Amino acid sequence: MSLFNLHAGRQTSSYLSLLILLTLTTLAVAQPEAGDERAVAVPVSDKLVDFFSGSTPSSIDELEAAQAHVRELAETVQKTVVGVGVGAAQGSGVIISRDGYVLTAAHVSGRPGRMARLFLSDGRMVPARTLGLNKTFDAGLMKIAIDDWEDQNWPHADMGSSVDVELGQWVMAVGHPGGFQADRNPVVRLGRIVHTYKDVLTSDCTLIGGDSGGPLFGMDGRVVGIHSRIGPELSHNVHAPVDSYKEGWERMANEEQWGQMPGAPLVGVTGGQNPDKAEIESIVPGSPAAKAGIRKGDIIIEFAGKDISTFDSLVNVVGIHRPGEEVMVKILRDDKEIDIKLTIGQANGRIPDAPEEDSSLQEQPVAAEYNSWLSYIAAYKPATIHQKNHSEIVDAFTPVVTKAGNSTVKVLDKKRPLALGVIVSADGYVLTKASEILSDEREFPLICEDSRGNKYEASFVSHRPKVDLLMLKLDARKLKPIKWNTDPQPLGSWLVSPTNNGKPLAIGVVSAHPRAIRGGLLGVFLGETPDGVRVEQVFPNTAAARAKMARGDIILKVNEVEIMNREHLIETVRSHLPGEKITLQVRRGDEQLDIDAVLGREEDIAGSRAVEQQNLGGPLSSRRSGFQSVLQHDTVLRPEHCGGPILNTKGQAVGINIARATRVSSYALPATVIVALIEEMKTRDADAVNEPGDAAN
Whole-structure pTM over 0.90, yes or no? Predict the structure, then answer.
């Protein structure tokens, strides 16, 4: 499948420079009126106002009332969200008028006057035309290019106001992470406003490339922001306040382009190894930090009025500022506090003096100068009071998980936790995630620890590779098996992941309807020409490289399926598993060739932007594709948290967490799949007694 170059910030572990390309916009001639009776809307009841404003949930009844509202909101607003394709760029957008005006990001739409493809929630593809853009804020406007729009009455959202957005308020992010997929609804993520700063909103609604240009909804269904960038933390997702779109509406509707696309803010320091303070390890010569007089060993305790406790917190605060801003930095040097004035630089080392009106917008969604990225963050930080997974919010779900905690175990290899597991019968059978446990070196029996701290030997019983499930047998009796619920879970439903100590681990909501996750990787970057889908780049060490595909190849067919466009090719390749062989018919110059390629995985593209983006926020499961049916949700897990149950608000298990799959998603096997396998898996594999690794094959 193609690797999409879509916007998201990243940063090297050495240089403090964060890529934040702000998305702010304005709206068009005949600006849509707020309160259009045809616009989608979900009024918030009086009893939910306090909760959605950020107060602590008072009861399970309040959580279930909130769930009912979120479910309705998710089903309603997704009708207004579109996938956007302009040339090689892919992103998202939201329709904000019945005559088809669409808000998106400038790096998605590109220059005015281009033709684009919009993918509606009902599966239709309609043409659109790009209008104006404000390059300073990465803001773009488009319009559906169908003359008889009056007969269409496009589903659309109202624009709200971002002025009154408050810290801690609940919001819903919707978009197409990774690009539009025909078998997947616009993906829903629920979170809270974490930060407001001038013309930037940040939330803990996780985003990734492909989400750019998508909407951030208030809980009344009105758009309050547009997705722009991501940062190194899962809570650092940047949205442009919608009010800024309103201000430039006339110019954008008239296809004007103005401003300068900002670069990544740069300070130019490296962090020390102490996780408890922002101590400076080194200074980049000629950087803003060097010019301001910051020294090795200085401890930064305040940046632009924000308290700094760790180097990571410094990264986050720097990331919401722009190159060229003057800020005050408070440092601790030799036990003395010193105030220093610093002018923030840009990732390419330049400190801008003034905007350059003639600076051209990058039409490719990745700008070459943005080369400072955070490649990996392994540790999750405690949630701030304004985040979804703050302890006050998560603890409100304790009554939900109390009983299920007795049915959840931790699977250990000696003392090292490998995964969670689910007790499925009173006589000691446990299901867990196989790929986190099975290896050539793993020796059985393992240890399972229950909610009371009791430890039991666990022997290998059986393995089902297709669903990545492992059955263990504990040397125990009279255990508490999990209670299953096989009912479908609507979009926006609360999901709670328990630990083995009877406490909530994390919460989330259902993000997408159940579907197959296959996802073989070809390893090319794709564009389109009048002749068809063109290979623009072949990534090394991928299926395409091994098959000797070349830049300029026009892909005509996959396994005799004629390819209609770029999106069709992506979906066709995605329908195959890693390890499967496909045959591509390509035209290379005047020659037509049949090329066999064995598909790989996304991890094959070492150091690629997509892989780096996915790793921002923590490690992913080694096995995260090849499932016939999964329930996608936005709970943030670690690989060792998989294998355990995921619960509804009644405390019933609706599935087993099977993968921390991407930055934005975790997957659960639905209860319907699991229940059908339990009795079958109690039968011991023939070769399981001494060779569990072989039994897995």
Answer: no
